[in-house]
Amino acid sequence: MIKMLNEKQPLVSIGVPVFNGEKRLAVALDSLLNQDYPFFEIIISDNGSTDSTPDICRDYVNKDPRVKYFRSEKNCGFTWNFNRVFELSSGEYFMWAAHDDNRAPTFVSECVRSMEKRPDAVLCHVYTVTFIEGQKDALYYSSLDTFEKVSVLIGRYRETLKHFPMTAIYGLYRSSSMRKTHMFEKSMATDLAFIQELSIYGSFIQVHKELFTYLGRYKWNTVNQDFQFSFGKGCKPSWCFPFIALFFNHWGRISAAPVSFFTKLYLWVVLIQYQAAQVSIKVLIKIAGLFCPKRWKVKFASAIYRRWLHNPNIKVVSEQLFLERIIKPRIGWWK
């Protein structure tokens, strides 16, 4: 049975980090306020928006006392903003909500019910359908199906490295488990490092229902755009190598984990094996791109992606859109 708390101490805190979200913010907030689970708070952190986002947020604060609004006068980057909404939260459970996502009315209640049944779980998500902005067809469906086959810590950590669908970062978390992690640090792809660290503390579970719609950007960010998005300003310094920085971010989180030295040793081995495999695959792709005839590139790139890069938790809906939006950017032969 779901715990029933009064509204002054909400069970679920929903953090909405936003920057210039005027186009879809109202739709996202409506989907949250329409949840059939009543005991929650919505914490909006406005990261220096220059559009009408502040006005939209203030309107919702006036409409519903569960909505709280905080604003920074300058853009401090998504890393700071994602951490901030959690720091301001008070619920036993927490989830991030992007300003352009849409959740079914039962999303929170279904996830809370599943988490209450599984005290070992640290994250719960649902079946998700992903669209790309400007495209009418769905891109793919995602799940945590492969995570249901692993239960031990080492296997779970390996699975997060290889097959975690990043849409699941918008699932429901156990707040006490999040506090054990280093959250988002000042490093590119720190959200990945956070997920890997979180897997040390418990299981990832799912609700077998399609209750979440994720909207992806039409184009991938460049490295400089990712750097600016993460930190709010500037371009990536020439001395900054994201792949290496991410590796040491993972390594440091393992070092600090409250597990035995032998468990850490196993985790380090898993990490090194995975990173070595990634380097090998990238080198192979680079060499193959130099020698592959132009007329064969699309088929060859698709074959390479399916063999070494495809996530089994992703079920493709639109093959052509998936080719243009996922396969070609990942392979990199068309840059």
Q: Please, could you describe this protein's structure?
A:
The chain is α/β, with parallel strands linked by helices. It has two domains: 12-216, Spore Coat Polysaccharide Biosynthesis Protein SpsA, Chain A (Alpha-Beta Complex); 239-331, no CATH class. The chain is built from twelve helices and ten strands. Strands 1, 2, 3, 4, 5, 6, 7, 8, 9 and 10 form a ten-stranded mixed beta sheet that branches. Strand 1, helix 1 (25-33) and strand 2 form a beta-alpha-beta unit. The longest helix has 31 residues, at 261-291. It is globular and about 60 Å long.
Structural class assignment: alpha/beta
Q: What's the CATH topology name of the largest domain?
A: Spore Coat Polysaccharide Biosynthesis Protein SpsA, Chain A
What is the helix fraction of residues, given as a range?
40-55%
Tell me the number of structural domains.
2
- CATH architecture grouping of the largest domain: Alpha-Beta Complex
Please report which band the strand proportion falls in: under 5%, 5-15%, 15-25%, 25-35%, 35-45% or over 45%.
15-25%
Rg from C-alpha positions? 20 Å
Write down the CATH class of the largest domain.
Answer: Alpha Beta
Order of helices and strands: EHEHEHEEHEEHEHHEHHHHEH
Number of helices: 12
> What is the quaternary state of this protein?
single chain
Shape: globular
- CATH homologous superfamily assignment of the largest domain: Spore Coat Polysaccharide Biosynthesis Protein SpsA, Chain A
Mean pLDDT: 91
What distance lies between the first and last C-alpha atoms, to the nearest angstrom? Answer: 53 Å
Biggest sheet overview:
10 strands, mixed
Low-confidence stretches: 1-10
Number of strands: 10
